[in-house]
Structure formats: structure tokens, C-alpha cells
TrEMBL record:
Organism (species): Micavibrio aeruginosavorus (strain ARL-13)
Protein name: Growth inhibitor PemK
Domain of life, per lineage: Bacteria
A single MF term (Gene Ontology): DNA binding
InterPro entries tied to this protein: PemK-like, Plasmid_toxin/cell-grow_inhib
Length: 145
């Protein structure tokens, strides 16, 4: 199966590098996880760069920094039914497809779970923009030479 186009709202499987991992000197994420493409741009040379937000089961210490994914959406994406959040204050940026895009577990040759519903994606972006205005986001730039 070919790689998907990196469209906003698409949930991909990715070896996410958390801020604390990068600050400890790690260069690769420890765990593959669902991540939401928040931004996708293409430069004049055709190079695509994406910004992703990770999905985690760990409840946020500060509710403002994450958005819970409703069970109905988790079911639609084929994710487990444990509570999960999109973390909006810790992001990765990389050239598409990068070295850390991973196949979805149990989904032969697929790299994505599907799209967030537009209303949920809009809420995530609005919350992220608020965090950016307050200078409460950190971005790890990865896989770019």
C-alpha cells in the first residue's frame, strides 16, 4: 500500500520523540504511537514538512495542554478504547515521510488510522493556537538535514 498524503487531521503511526526524551539526548522515539498531523506544508522544491501532535493514554497534568479523544472517534480510527488525549504542547516536525513513520499495528501496509472528524480537529487547532500565543508549546525538529 502506498504512503498516504500528509493531510491535516490524518492520524499516522509514528515513532514520536517526546520533549523530555530529546532533552535527555535521545534522537529516536521509544514507542510508536498514533499522532495527528496538525500542519502540512510543501516548499517550492516539493519537500513536504509536517507537524504532528502525539496521542497518549496518560492524562494531562494540565487539561489546557491536551484534548481528549471521544470513544466514538477512537472506535472510528480503530484505536483501543482506553481514554486518550492529543497532546498539544509537545510537537514534532519532520520532512515527509521521514525515518520514523511506522506501519499501523495489525493493518498490513497501512501507515495511517484515518482522519479526525473536522470539528474535533478544529478544536485541537484552536487549543494549540492558544497554547502557542501563551508560549507554552515545544517543537522537536526531526529528520531534517
Amino acid at each position: 500500500m502506498p504512503l498516504p498524503e500528509p493531510e491535516v487531521g490524518l492520524v499516522i503511526s509514528y515513532a514520536y520523540l517526546w520533549r523530555h526524551e530529546a532533552e535527555a539526548g535521545q534522537e529516536e522515539g521509544v514507542k510508536n504511537r498514533p499522532c495527528v498531523i496538525i500542519l502540512s506544508i510543501q516548499d517550492q522544491d516539493g519537500i513536504k514538512t509536517v507537524t504532528v501532535a502525539p496521542v497518549t493514554h496518560t492524562p494531562p497534568q494540565d487539561p489546557e495542554t491536551a484534548l481528549e479523544i471521544p470513544p466514538r472517534v477512537k472506535n472510528h480510527l480503530g484505536l483501543d478504547m482506553e481514554r486518550s488525549w492529543i497532546v498539544l504542547n509537545d510537537l514534532n516536525v519532520f520532512a515527509w515521510p521521514g525515518f520514523d513513520l511506522r506501519p499501523v499495528p495489525g493493518a498490513q501496509g497501512r501507515y495511517d488510522y484515518g482522519f479526525l472528524p473536522p470539528a474535533l480537529f478544529s478544536r485541537a487547532v484552536k487549543q494549540l493556537l492558544t497554547l502557542r500565543q501563551k508560549k507554552r508549546t515545544k517543537i522537536q525538529v526531526r529528520d531534517q538535514e
